[in-house]
Design brief:
Number of strands: 7
Shape: globular
Number of domains: 1
Number of helices: 3
Radius of gyration: 15 Å
Helix content: 10-25%
CATH topology: Nucleoside Triphosphate Pyrophosphohydrolase
């Protein structure tokens, strides 16, 4: 089986709302899977620029990058034409403070985007490795 490498980047965009911290999550796969916004790094683009672009496209929100949170990595397979291809994917995540925009302006690749209190978001998010990124983000926000 052929293996290809993918590099992606995304963000945890947060805001302070009614004395609590909220983060934006996106829903995919028919609105059944909640996750962090992320996407592939384009040619000539650095990972911070990708994070900013992907968060804006997938959530409708703009944010100021504060710090790199960390990265996750995993394998997944996808059928392409007559063969199955295995991908090794690395995703870098950045902490982003909300500066504007509306979750209703997310793009067509996303079924939904909503703000969640950060504790609720940790329960809602589908993937354990992204939950760990969210946990690290919560610690970083507390120390600001």
């Amino acid at each position: 089986m052929k293996t290809e490498r993918q590099l992606s980047s995304g963000g945890v965009v947060f805001r302070r709302f009614k004395n609590r911290i909220e983060v934006a999550l996106i829903a995919v796969k028919g609105g059944n899977v909640w996750e962090l916004p992320k996407g592939l790094v384009e040619h000539g683009e650095n990972i911070a620029r990708t994070a900013h672009r992907e968060v804006k496209e997938e959530t409708g929100l703009d944010g100021r990058i504060l710090k790199k949170i960390g990265h996750i990595q995993y394998f997944y397979c996808r059928r392409e034409e007559a063969e199955t291809v295995r991908f090794f994917k690395i995703v870098y995540f950045f902490l982003m403070e909300y500066t504007g925009g509306d979750v209703g302006d997310h793009d067509y690749e996303v079924d939904d985007c909503r703000w969640f209190p950060i504790v609720e978001a940790m329960d809602k998010i589908e993937y354990d490795n992204e939950r760990e990124i969210l946990r690290k983000a919560a610690e970083m926000i507390e120390s600001l």
